[in-house]
Amino acid sequence: MTSISAVITAPDGIAKCLLADDLVAEADGVSLELIVVDGPPDYTDRSRPGLRHLSVPGRDIYGLITAGLARADKDWVFVTEDHAKAEPGLLRTYRAAIDAHPDIDLFSGAVENKTSTSPWSFANFLIGIHQYWPPAGQNPVSACNANLLVRREAIDASELASDGGFMNLTLARLVRSGRHRHCADAIVDHVLPLTLRQGFEFQYHCAAVSTRIRRDTMPPRPALVQIMRDCAGLMYLATIHPWRVMRRLRQTEQFR
Q1: Which end of the chain is more exposed for a tag (fewer CB within 10 A), N or C?
Q2: Are residues 18 and 82 in contact, defined by beta-carbon separation less than 8 angstroms?
């Protein structure tokens, strides 16, 4: 059986992880090992056979991913978040995809939205990962850290030198080389209900961290060019992007 290390980023601690029952049952440390990367400073090691509990305080989500990847030692690495709950059969689906497509090194999985309790919760979901939502019927051009599977040997260690290297360098390289495929039947449920205020705070935090990580990872640009690119990006996200998302999804069940 294809061995998998499951890296689960937990910026709020292992207690907040929505671990699926079948993942916990399968985690024997051989065919599957769960690696929970814990962000808070008040850490109590809960490692056990099949589960490795790491303490990496003071790092953002990209830093937690990097730390987990550095400790993963199985053939493949599944990356997800503490608030993403794997649907039954997710790893079985991924393993079948690996067997069917031996030339692929990166699989993106689908991300469901079953628990949004308000319009702003659903809006936050759409802003970031609507292209992975099964009812949208889209074919994503990359992978999302809520649900992806990557061949460990395809990760260049030099790309992990900065915390944003995996998401901004490794994934882009695998996509450019034609080694990425979307696996729509491998699904996680993105459980992140937010109030209106929490929604604004969440998006601001995501934008700030992503901007910093891109600047740390990608080649530097002249200050004026960078400012103009940032402004253009904000204008796109505030005006054109929401319109395009709504146009694509208006015929789906959520909009009927």
Answers
A1: C
A2: yes
